[in-house]
Amino acid sequence: MANPEPRLRICLVEDDEIMGDSLSQLLRLEGFTVDRCRDAAAARRALEHQRYSVVVSDVRLPDGDGGAIFLDLKATGTALPPFLFMTGYGTIDRAVELIKAGAVDYVTKPFDAEALVNRVRSRAEEFGAVADAGTAAGATGGSAAMRRITDTLPRLARHAASLLITGESGVGKEHVAREFHQLTGASGEFVAVNCAAIPEALMESELFGHERGAFTGAAKAKRGYFEQAHQGTLFLDEIGEMSLAMQAKLLRVVQDRSFVRLGAEKPLQSDFRLVCATHRDLKAMVEAGAFREDLYYRIHVIELRIPPLRERAEDIRWFVRHFIEEFNQRNPAEPRRLDPRTERVLLDYGWPGNVRELKHAVERACILSTEPLLDAEAFFGDGGDRATNAPQASQSLADYLIACEKAYLVQALGQHEGHMTRTAEALGIARKTLWEKLRRLDIRVKGET
Questions:
Q1: 93, CA 20 to 30 Å: which among 150, 347, 356, 417?
Q2: The domain spanning residue 448 has which CATH number?
Q3: Assigned domain for 196 exists
Q4: Does residue 316 lie within any of the structural domains?
Q5: Are residues 98 and 239 in the same domain?
Q6: Are residues 90 and 214 in the same domain?
Q7: Percentage above 90 pLDDT, the chain
Q8: Are residues 126 and 188 in the same domain?
Q9: pLDDT computed for residue 400 by the predictor
Q10: pTM for this prediction
């Protein structure tokens, strides 16, 4: 088991000698720095003079209530680390009250020591990541997959002239591209182009630019995206949507870094880094004749695949807290906290829209919730025109979410006349993923076996 970074310091408040010594030793073996406090007074003094990553406290202490430490410090406006409470059966109600007041978690005795350590590590690393990164754009998540990408980007920024980023819609491909651009230290701009959003008739003019009078309506000269990206980075999102004719013209620019404005004769030079992104399988498109092989090998020198959010549960936790922290910084008078009991619901949900969907869900929950503690209803509760899908009293939230997902997929299939490929593309998922969802939810598609 990998050790946390030494900077993760824990304040352990436990008066029971056997329990306190055992937990202190276990946490230190896991790489944490542990300050042991045996009563509330000692804990208050420690919190006044030391910055901690997590406070782990018993609810019952010899000189008072451990929760009072948290509530008193919170009332003063002091910036607090996450509080995790250890509670016996008789004090569960008190622990729930503390969660509603802003504590992040609690465990009930007797508990599995390793499970407690894992929970402490998760809270400590999340708090450390938010504290270190704040709301900086550089935050990409804490999963092993995203850490590998984060660790690789500086080296790519130093040496790579082109980069291909793949992954489902909403996983954060443009965000990684912007990180790449920032790390290059380029003096030029980051120019983002959504190839799927530009009509074919306008694509050439948008990319290459045009001279005045080059065509009807060209009242003045215009710099194209290639020109705007000089000394910077050109990001071509959804490059798989580009026509074969435009792919041929793009290939020439990628090879020579030169182009000609529409209506001009003299070629222009542009020195830019090229980052392409797609949710499609470009290799399969090459084999099907839908994407040029020579262009594919030009842009596929280095590929970064961003996994979907459902494959990196650690990032679901990280992003939820990151987005809540962003909301709290913008709205300090209405702070929000995640109910720990809701975490399992968020982890079990498939997030077909990936980080984009998760961010919108968190923002919606923060804005619409009338309580500071965000429960499952804040994220998934539906009203208005979806009232007919409301869960019955005998229906669990998990069953309700499954029913919603099933209804959504049936609706999407209907809109695309049961065409699997078009439906998968509209949903931003792979055809295989769609097929697996349909099989799991027992949805039959006409013509499919």
A1: 347
A2: 1.10.10.60
A3: yes
A4: yes
A5: no
A6: no
A7: 29
A8: no
A9: 58
A10: 0.57
Q: Indicate if 65 and 159 belong to the same structural domain.
A: no
pLDDT tens digit sequence for 240-295: 999 999 999 999 999 989 999 988 888 999 999 999 999 999 999 999 999 999 99
Provide the token pair at 45.
């003094």
Domain count, the chain: 4
Strand partners, 338: 374
Q: How far is CA 337 from CA 179, 227, 325, 373, 374, in A?
A: 28, 46, 9, 5, 6
Same domain for 286 and 156: yes
Which long-range CB contacts under 8 A does 129-133 form with residues at least 24 apart?
Answer: 129/318, 129/322, 130/321, 130/322, 130/325, 133/322
156 and 69 belong to one structural domain: no
**More reliable by pLDDT, 193 or 1:** 193
Q: Looking at residues 305-325, what average pLDDT do you find?
A: 86
Same-domain check for residues 79 and 223? no
Q: Which of 122-126, 322-326, 387-391 has the highest mean pLDDT?
A: 322-326
Q: 305, 327, 348 — which closes off a domain?
A: 305
Is the separation of the CB atoms in 276 and 234 below 8 Å?
no
CATH number of the domain residue 117 falls in: 3.40.50.2300
**Res. 67: pLDDT tops 50:** yes
Report the sign of the C-alpha dihedral through residues 154, 156, 159, 165, in that order. Answer: negative
Structure tokens at 393: 């009293």
Average pLDDT over all residues of the chain = 82
Encode the chain in three state secondary structure: CCCCCCCCEEEEECCCHHHHHHHHHHHHHCCCEEEEECCHHHHHHHHHHCCCCEEEEECEECCEEHHHHHHHHHHCCCCCCCEEEEECHHHHHHHHHHHHHCCCEEEECCCCHHHHHHHHHHHHHHHHHHHHHCCCCCCCCCCHHHHHHHHHHHHHHHHCCEEEEECCCCCCHHHHHHHHHHHHCCCCCEEEEECCCCCHHHHHHHHHEECCCCCCCCCCCEECHHHHCCCCEEEEECHHHCCHHHHHHHHHHHHHCEECCECCCCCEECCCEEEEEECCCHHHHHHCCCCCHHHHHHHCCCEEECCCHHHCHHHHHHHHHHHHHHHHHHCCCCCCEECHHHHHHHHHCCCCCHHHHHHHHHHHHHHHCCCCEECHHHHHCCCHHHHHHCCCCCCCHHHHHHHHHHHHHHHHHHHCCCCHHHHHHHHCCCHHHHHHHHHHCCCCCCCCC
Q: Which domain holds residue 202?
A: 144-305
* Predicted pLDDT at 155: 92
Are both 149 and 125 inside the same structural domain? no
How confident is the model at residue 279, as a pLDDT?
94
Q: Is residue 258 part of a domain?
A: yes
pLDDT of residue 28: 85
